[in-house]
Amino acid sequence: xxxxxxxxxxxxxxxxxxxxxxxxxxxxxxxxxxxxxxxxxxxxxxxxxxxxxxxxxxxxxxxxxxxxxxxxxxxxxxxxxxxxxxxxxxxxxxxxxxxxxxxxxxxxxxxxxxxxxxxxxxxxxxxxxxxxxxxxxxxxxxxxxxxxxxxxxxxxxxxxxxxxxxxxxxxxxxxxxxxxxxxxxxxxxxxxxxxxxxxxxxxxxxxxxxxxxxxxxxxxxxxxxxxxxxxxxxxxxxxxxxxxxxxxxxxxxxxxxxxxxxxxxxxxxxxxxxxxxxxxxxxxxxxxxxxxxxxxxxxxxxxxxxxxxxxxxxxxx
Length: 317
Known about the structure:
By secondary structure, the protein is α/β, with parallel strands linked by helices.
């Protein structure tokens, strides 16, 4: 009997939620993803020091202004690490737009195009890249523009059905609903310390999004993310994609218990209604305390890690 990770791969595309080259080599996922938190961790490892130095030299070669050098080095570092990850996976790598731009539609588009241009400079075609953008209204609209220009996007920090619906209606390539962070919120707000997998609020949320997408034949890929335990992953077996941390991939590798497909494409389909308007989106987010709080919290956390990364780069300039 194959281990659970291998069984899962027969029904779901597995993505590595890490920037650790060794972990990716060990578990052979299809895709990889990074974010400022993962890049910050990478910056502290010896294996990445030559990459950091390369990013700094690049930044110094194009500008003499220190603030601009930090920005250029940060952008180039994310691309260099993405390029390294692409050498280990057959599919795509997600690279994140600065979270501090999450409410600036125009600047997100500019930053995304810059990242794609840097990848192309490194010989990487845009077909292997997903641009990660926070699932704010402005982020969704920025991604809609990018999708129309052939730049595929991964809408991250997604916690609500309103965010998921708006993404599908905007023609976004992929969404990353955060299963574990939804569970975190409910544990804290209810005082309930444990949830069975089929009662897990994060699992229920992603299942509802998946069922809605498939019933209405939306093409947007659903990639569950931010898992807290193996049970959440197995409860979403059959989801289009799941991005999994190395420690949880190891748990799946260590077990040969049978994995059952949980998410099934329906046999009948429904017509798509009118698109969600901006005011409807904002009201539905306002009514969803969990989604509002976790989206804002996630943006703040990614922005803080981006600042920490920039301080490391600044000290080396």
